[in-house]
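Recall that a protein's primary structure is simply its ordered list of amino acids. Everything else, from secondary elements to tertiary packing, is in principle encoded there. The following example makes that idea concrete.
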Amino acid sequence: MNIAVDDAIGDRLNRLVKLAMDTGEAASLEEAERMFAEYRLSVSVGADIAHSPTLQAILLTIVNSARRSFLGGVEVDVAVDSPLLVPFSRHENLGAAVRALGGRITTRISTATPLICLGNVPDKAENPIAIRATFDGWTGGILPLSQSAKRLDEKQEFAPAGVLAGALAVTEAFQFLRRNQPLAGRREAGLSLWRPELSWQDSASRGPQIDRLPSSLWLVGLGNLGQAYLWTLGMLPYASPSDVQLVLQDFDVLAPSNESTSLLTTADVVGIHKTRAMAQWAQQRGFRSAIIERRFDANFRVRPDEPSLALCGVDNALARAALEDVGFGRIIEAGLGGGTADFLGFRTHVFPGARKARDVWKPAAQSDERRIDLPAYEKLSAAGLDRCGLTRLAGRTVGAPFVGAIAGAVVIAEALRAANGAHAYDLIDGHLRDLTHRTVIPAINPAPFNPGATPVEL
């Protein structure tokens, strides 16, 4: 096989299905796909979702990320005529929104699948695990359904906390099916987007109501992370969406594999430049946008009339090292793990900070070692894919949309704090196998920064 054939396989490969190839548990790509086709998820929703934008953000994030990961399908028991309260789409009710995202509406939830519950539902279920997603203010979390007495108040609405809670619930259900976390579905987990160094159940973690939203942003990279930023940004209650100015920068074209990780990629936009597909999404949301279709480097300067707040979601170390060289006032960047052991990891940085971007992203020697001796790759070799092609394919990262969604919520929360003159964090580093063991480093005396802001819709 030649490089074109290798690229064709890589471009259609579901980046989460690749996990089964890279652990050696699947003897072929086809076996890995069959394995993930057995993964199914059920969601039970209380009637109070009709009155809570944040519960709706939880539900839509669950459906959007899970349908890309649980390839056997996502079934949802929800009142389909509940009005849509989040500015996700032009759909008038939740049923239409759930269907548009790939969920299946049902009134009879399976008892054989992992179950996620939100809102006022019974606190007992016969499923192998039953997880409750909950929120209050800037805090989102999960707990076993049987512990619903510890549910958060769910009174202070904040859509990014809904994105966080929904993605955490999907992560937990996925870990249960993968059997890599014995406590999955039987523990509590959560995070405060206001004070991530605190316990998510601490009353001080709830955070304040805010009245301003960021209005001017430059997005570098429009894959898993960049689209996760836009997903959460699109949930925010802008009083005047036309006040929002976005610069969208990427050089690549959407491939079928992007649909497995990227929350705004659907089959109908595959083959289109990422910038143009996301600009179309921005227009539908009511935002203004400009596009740049080239790699990010230090060979330009940000103009005074362009966004000075950058959100970076690329995995190229050279591009990340150049982030402070072009004149942005503040940069918020995130990275995800990409291997079988670390794909559940995420890390965010804010620059300027205690360390320079060029110090964080110094050139490092890259190991060329790839596990092409694993059964799935040996089968591809037997089918004619040469060693170079195998190495290239094995080198593609494992990726999960629910991890990107969590990192995206953390990054947008950082932008929201900036827009409201609040504190910042140099580093937030966590792993979803156990989120309690995270590293959070507050910024010390950050320089004053005004990214541009516009009012919240009241």
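Residues 39-205 form a domain with the Rossmann fold fold (CATH 3.40.50.720). The longest helix spans residues 159-178.
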